[in-house]
Amino acid sequence: MPVTEDQLSPLIIQSIELREICLPLIHFFETSFGRTTERRIVLARVTDADGAEGWGECTAGEGPFYSDEWTDSAWSTLCEFLGPMVLGQRVERAADVFGLMRPVRGHRMAKATIETACWDLEARKLGVPLWKHLGGTPREISCGVSIGIQDTPDILLEKIRQEVDAGYQRIKIKIKPGWDVSIVTRVRKEFPHIRLMGDANSAYTLADVPLFKELDGLNLMMLEQPLSHDDIFDHAKLQQQIQTPICLDESIRTPEDATHAIAMGSCKIINVKLGRVGGHSEAKRVEAVARANDIPVWCGGMLESGIGRAHNIAMSTLAGFSLPGDVSASARYWEEDIIEPPVMVSATGTIVAPDASGIGFNLNLPRIDALTVRKQTIAL
Ligand code: OSB
Ligand code: MG
Fold it and tell me: Which residues line ligand 1 (CB under 6 A)?
């Protein structure tokens, strides 16, 4: 039986069941830092003292290339430090769980695994959809796609054609030295009117200003994370010299990073990733900072399985998420997702956040079991 906000008892985490699942991608995903063919994803099932449960997904990649976290670092940080740190602790709300993990520096993707599961758990106890519990409105979110580097430009053009025809509202292509101005020029010629952007994943330096000036002529909605993964200073220098809005991804790990980057003029748009910032509470803070400064945000993706995707959908309903995100249909990634129904996108490139409580999708437990390669339970 659901309870009201007033009746909600304090949250005491009783157990954390961690699993690693291995899930092959339908098509490899290539960025400036490498190619992924198969995901190794850590999932967490958290239970509390009232017997409620919630699910979270770790967005760390298979190696420390997008960020310094990766599947195994998250697994051991969760088992050795974060799990024991939160177990049996009493907090008023899921919103307080991030604070329990403060002694651990960084490791935000590992933290978000537990933190997001607690939000799902709390929303389920209240019998409300997570998106509502987070304060989201309206229910329908705008979707774009992120298309990796391909073996040939023709394959890329064909993929863009498919996604435009499917109704996605904006196309992001990955760029890197040697796969940039000439490619974007070809795409623009073929698709003069689409909302288009490029994501460099930190492949460039300030020595590349002339190249960015060439890109300025191609009417990109934004250029994502052109410079170093931890930089905000050089991005400000670059933004002063180009017209295309810079969007920061890797560089924004905290609400303070967002404050500093906005104050310095390092970006005009922010990509919010739930894992990178440490979960829903921190994501809400980043969104609030951006909204207070009239900086639009959108939801980034990390090739999530259904659980992470469902959390992304919920987050994307927050008011500041005014641009289409990298949240797209399950079928673009997986033969079969681990949730039911899979995430579906409308013909106009939108997803309607579900009505059911918590993340709002059913878990396909037999499929999760079949994909599990290791499992560990941390309990009192
Ligand atoms: O930089 O946004 C990125 C995937 C893995 C690591 C980094 C990024 C991405 C994506 C994919 O762009 C977005 C998605 O479709 O999930
Ligand atoms: Mg990015």
Answer: 31, 66, 146, 199, 201, 249, 300-303, 326
Domains of the chain: residue spans and CATH: 11-127+364-379 (3.30.390.10), 133-362 (3.20.20.120)
Which of 172, 225, 250, 302 maximizes ligand 1 atoms within 8 Å of its Cβ, making it the mutation to test the pocket? 302
| Residue 273 annotated among the catalytic residues of the structure | yes
Cα 234 to chain centroid distance, Å, stands at: 24
Nearest CA to ligand 1 atom 5: 302
pTM: 0.98
Q: Taking the chain (380 residues) in consecutive chunks of 10 residues, what is each chunk's mean pLDDT?
A: 92 98 98 97 97 98 98 98 98 98 98 98 98 95 98 98 98 98 98 98 98 98 98 98 98 98 98 98 98 98 98 98 98 98 98 97 98 97
The Cα-based distances of 353 to 90, 297, 311, 316 in angstroms read: 30, 18, 10, 9
Q: Which ligand is nearest to the CA of 168?
A: 1
Q: For residue 59, give every residue at least 6 positions away whose Cβ sits within 8 Å of its Cβ, in sequence order, or none.
A: 109, 112, 273, 274, 275, 276, 302, 304, 308
